[in-house]
Amino acid sequence: MADIRNIVILTGAGVSAESGIDTFRGGGGQNGMGLWEKHRVEDVATPEAFARDPDLVLRFYDMRRAAIASKRPNPAHEALARLDAEWPKKQGRGLLLVTQNIDDLHERAGSARVLHMHGTTDAWCTACDARGAWLAPMMERPACPECGASALRPDVVWFGEMPYEMERIYAALSEADLFVSIGTSGAVYPAAGFVRDARELGARTLELNLARSEGSAWFDETRLGPASELVPAWVDEMLR
To answer: How far apart are CA 26 and CA 185, in angstroms?
Structure first.
């Protein structure tokens, strides 16, 4: 891999599903049932839903925050953390891990170069715009630690909102020699379009997924199987 210096990795729900975190699409998580089958996206993941029924939305994310806290990183998270630690050690190499997941399993595994394009379960105060780590329930309408207003919501990018740090992502894609998509459906934009952007800019493209995604045709190579098996094997190849 001597000709590969800059890597951009995109991870999706398929990575965290193997840690037992339900996905927002059918078949994810330990119970085999996607969250969308329990809650309509329109009811829990849009600004309109929050305005219409904030109690339902806050309860949903309070439960999700508690569920995430009980899970542990799996071998895919751990392998990516190893790549994160080892790859940039040689001069001129770069790596950015972009995740669509709102959980913190990449960080708990040890990854330092993580960008959460869809946010996290942390708190965002809509009164003063402060953001910060949050573990307590929001259903009780706690005061913002910065301004005191009871205006906290999950710092999650809902449908209809702009994902975070898109300029930074596109800048990394423009410098990438390799783009790798792991555990994603290829159905949610703008992330689903990253493979096309990377390929048009000259990067190699690799998909590691349980099944072929909607964007598989854009990848130079697709490897199918569980992320907990595919990712450690790929990382071994890169660090060999």
So the answer is: 11
Angstrom distance (rounded) from CA 73 to CA 23:
15
Cα–Cα dist 25/193, whole Å:
19
- Number of Cβ within a 10 Å radius of residue 102: 22
Q: List the domain boundaries for the chain.
A: 1-21+73-118+163-240, 22-70+120-156
DSSP structure class, residue 142 = P
Residues forming a β-bridge with 208: 182, 223
Q: Identify whether 106 is a catalytic site residue.
A: no
What is the second-level CATH architecture of the domain 1-21+73-118+163-240? 3-Layer(aba) Sandwich (3.40)
Q: Which helix (H) or strand (E) holds 212?
A: none
Q: Per-residue pLDDT for the chain (240 aa), expressed as one digit of tens each?
A: 569 999 999 999 999 999 998 766 544 433 333 454 477 788 899 999 999 999 999 999 999 999 999 999 999 999 999 999 999 998 889 999 999 999 999 999 999 999 999 999 999 999 999 999 999 999 999 999 999 999 999 999 999 999 999 999 999 999 999 999 999 999 889 999 999 999 999 999 999 999 999 999 999 999 999 999 999 999 999 999
Nearest to 8, CA basis, from 75, 85, 99: 99
The contacts found for 28-37 with CB under 8 angstroms, 24 or more apart, are: none
CATH number of 22-70+120-156: 3.30.1600.10
Which DSSP category does 143 fall into?
P
pTM of the model: 0.92
Pick from 92, 77, 110: nearest CA to 9: 77
Q: Is 175 in a helix, a strand, or coil?
A: helix
